[in-house]
Amino acid sequence: MSSDDPRFAKTMVNQQFITHIRAEGVLGTFTYDVEFPEENDEGRIRAVYAPNGRGKTNFLRAVAQALTPSIDSLQSLVEIPFASIKISFLSGGTIVLSRDEAFAGSFTAEVKETAVTHPMEASDGARISVDPQDFAGRLFRRAWESRLDFHEYVEICQRITGGCVFIGEDRLSPTLDDMREAQRSENMYSRRHRSAGTVSDLLASAERMLNQSALATISNERRDGGVYSAITRTTLAGSLKLKTSDARDALEAKIEVLLQLGQPLERYGLISLSEVRSIAAQLHSARTNARPLPTLHQVLAPFLDSLVEQVNALQPAYDLIHTFVTEVNRFLDRKELRFTAALGIELVGLDRSVLHADSLSSGERHLIYLLTHALLVNRTRALLIIDEPEISLGIEWQRDICAALLRCSSFGQSQVIFASHSVQVLAGLPEHEIVQPTED
């Protein structure tokens, strides 16, 4: 299979699925063993449950940092107490971190890949040693940036994994930059919402993604030319010698199919069928034996066919948009999230007023934050890690959050790991999808 073949790209991405994560000596005592045996919705999510003090957050953070190698992530791993972590991928590639003892600080990191995903680039792997002293002094970043083994390690890691998005329990807490900006701001509304989290920024990213999904489809030209090329071709080919009644019936049948397929897409501004409805009304009012009908069929049939092709091509974008909008609104009460290609994402109240995302309640902001991240990971198929998804969510929302996360992330078949103490959250999962640590 050539590297230019679209099937190769799909195979390459599938190979980035994680099959196994094993972390030993977390807090010097606990072992976490997480398996993802299947590539389907039932196999894409794993919950971690344990009483407080068992190292759940340390485990999640260590996995997240291992999957996103950088100078900062290696520095963070120095501070996380674990003895070893091994992450295995469907491709056969592995990332392994190990140290002599959990609190030693120093560790080695090794990555291996196979020729499955990148046959032209596959190597024997890379290995680096990390010591706390490597981050001492003012010039430690320059020292790391000059290390060839570090760059090789990062490059191979990026080839075998889709990366990771980590959502911590402090996800909506203001950062130092937020607070500094708030102090500089003279606007109390702006000040209050800048310190309330990043939900607005996150929705803006989702809006760009949804619009790009639609635009990517629209920009793809037909291989056999556009609609005018098709009209020219059929006109030059001559009349099909249809009877006037047959020509009318054929056009009305095409219009009926088109309106059925396209009407859902109109809701999100992905297509406009107003002209098609106008054509349908004129056909309906025309005489059954009107002589121009066969000629009209010759001109309109390619136009209507091209619209059907456009609707079919836009279906994946529609599915992505409709799923996200529907899942968010499944939770919201007395307000609604809307999307149109022209206006983007809006939050609207009962009185149809547009609401500021960061003015929502804590539970609503946490919910939108989680589901928007689940949507965004479809781009890279990154592993989504969430520490305590139940924060600020009511009991009913907690029961439904796992299913909503899976639906929003289903387009990239992204995997999800979360840690939770909530009986309501965990109740929605079968026993084999809930992981508990063992004690060494």
List keywords for this structure.
440 residues; alpha/beta; 7-stranded antiparallel beta sheet; 5-stranded parallel beta sheet; 15 helices; 46% helix; disordered N terminus
Task: Give your account of this protein's structure.
- This protein has 440 residues and is α/β, with parallel strands linked by helices.
- Helix content is 46%, strand content 16%.
- It is built from 15 helices and 15 strands.
- A 7-stranded antiparallel β-sheet has the order 7-6-5-4-1-2-15, covered by helices on one side.
- A hairpin with a 4-residue loop joins strand 4 (84-89) and strand 5.
- Helix 2 (56-67) packs antiparallel against helix 3 (71-79), helix 8 (199-218) runs parallel beside helix 13 (362-376) and helix 10 (244-266) runs antiparallel to helix 11 (274-285).
- The longest helix is centred in the last third of the chain and has 39 residues, at 293-331.
- It is elongated.
- The relative contact order is 0.14.
Contiguous low-pLDDT stretches (5 residues minimum) are 1-12, 185-197
Distance between the termini: 45 Å
Sheet with the most strands, sense and barrel status:
7 strands, antiparallel
Radius of gyration: 27 Å
Q: What structural class do you assign from the helix and strand content?
A: alpha/beta
| Average of the residue pLDDT scores | 86
Share of β-strand residues: 15-25%
Order of strands across the biggest sheet?
7-6-5-4-1-2-15
What oligomeric state do these chains adopt? single chain
Helix content: 40-55%
Tally of DSSP β-strands: 15
